Every structure is written in structure tokens, then in C-alpha cells.
Amino acid sequence: xxxxxxxxxxxxxxxxxxxxxxxxxxxxxxxxxxxxxxxxxxxxxxxxxxxxxxxxxxxxxxxxxxxxxxxxxxxxxxxxxxxxxxxxxxxxxxxxxxxxxxxxxxxxxxxxxxxxxxxxxxxxxxxxxxxxxxxxxxxxxxxxxxxxxxxxxxxxxxxxxxxxxxxxxxxxxxxxxxxxxxxxxxxxxxxxxxxxxxxxxxxxxxxxxxxxxxxxxxxxxxxxxxxxxxxxxxxxxxxxxxxxxxxxxxxxxxxxxxxxxxxxxxxxxxxxxxxxxxxxxxxxxxxx
Length: 288
Description:
Layout: H1 2-13, H2 20-26, H3 42-56, H4 60-73, H5 78-94, H6 98-118, H7 123-137, H8 142-162, H9 167-181, H10 185-194, H11 204-217, H12 222-234, H13 238-249, H14 256-287
Helix pairs in contact: 1-10, 2-6, 3-4, 4-5, 5-6, 5-7, 6-7, 7-8, 7-9, 8-9, 9-11, 11-12, 12-13, 13-14
């Protein structure tokens, strides 16, 4: 057991200084100066409407540029801050180059932090902070990643509490529950020894519940259906997984990303149906 603990510590502490993403994550940030939310002038209102229209058309880079223009004119505009954070994460996630990912995710964290200063109890600002943390975690060493999952817990719980109809927040909560509940043995040992245990309240059942809620709130979001199906598969709930995948393939994809998710859903559905058919055939043979 002692050898296992030592191995755990060695693995999780390896690369403590190595990752530039981790340096960005842990860099000391000055405490934000409290800000009063910017009043919406006619010009700002127009720019926000243009940005939202571009976002609805999936022109996310152009929408982000509009939100940044708003923030250049009125730095404490809440809607521009949290939406800029979310868009920065989405755009950054598409890059394979780690340097660009770091830049976008770091920008997202800054926007989200500023949104929290303006409205610390609001659902959107807390969701944006949790989303930025979750995506930064993908670039961190094991130790920092575990700390990031612990740090994001209060933000994502506050988001769904403040706004129970916020489907994106429910999706992120479902992912958080599933990831933390599936820590491997080394992650669990490290969390117990150095972090006071794994984050409270995480469970696969809660992951299913949260993801189901997201899917129910926005049944036309193919990503939600796909995530729900994958959790059902992991929990060996094949019938429920098939139902979620059938919902997914009925959704018409709009973007290239949605088209790829639709392709994955169809492939998974074929695999699950084959397994189910094989089980039925074996059962029938057993009755002969």
C-alpha cells in the first residue's frame, strides 16, 4: 500500500512546473475591483443585438469580436462578459494547437471572473467560470486538474440553483458528476491524502439526472442527447442509451461539429442494436 501511495504522489506531481497551461492557471490574479454594471446605451444595445444575431448564425468569432467591442466601450457589461467567456471556450476547444487553446481558455477565465464581479450570484457568470475551469483542466497536469474539478464545484451548483432552466449548466453539471465519480485509484488516493477527499456529492446517478434534465430542456441540442447516451452506456443502461441515440439521430445537424456528433450517434446506435440482437439470439438459443 505504501508503494502504491508513493507511486500515486510521483505520478500526480510529475510535471508540476512543466505545463505552460498550468502556469497560466495558477498565476496569481489581482483581486478584481468591484464594478457597477454598465448601463446599456443605444449603441451598446445595438452591438449586443448584432453579437447575439451572429452567435445564433454560428458565426462565433465574429460574435466574440462584437462582444469585445462592447467591453472596450463599457467594460462592466454583464451579457458581453459572460457570453465572451463562453465563446472563447468554444472557439479555443476547436484548436489542436495547445498555445491557442491556452490563449482562448485564459481569456475565457478572465471574462468569467469579471462577470462574477458584476453579478456574483447570477447563473450565467457562475456557469462561465465553471466552463472555463473545466476546459483549462484538460491542459493541466494531474494534480492541477484535480484541483480544478474541486474549484469548479460551487460555481456549477450555484448556476443550476440560480437558474433551473439553464440547459447548458445542467449539461456541465452532469459532466462534472460523471468525471469526479469516475476518478481512477491514483486520483482518489491523491485527493484523499492532499485535498481532503474527492469533491462532495458526485455520483453517476446524479450525472444521469443532470444530463437528462439538459436533454429535456433543449431536446434539439444533439450534444446533450449524445452525452446522455454515453453516460447510459457507461452505466450499462443500454435500452436508455438507445432511446437517447434515437432522439439524437432525428435532430438535423446544422454545423460541421453537429454533423460529426450525428455520425458518432449513428455508429453507436448500430453497435448497441447489434449487441442487443446478439443477446436476444443467445437467449432464444438457451430456450431451445
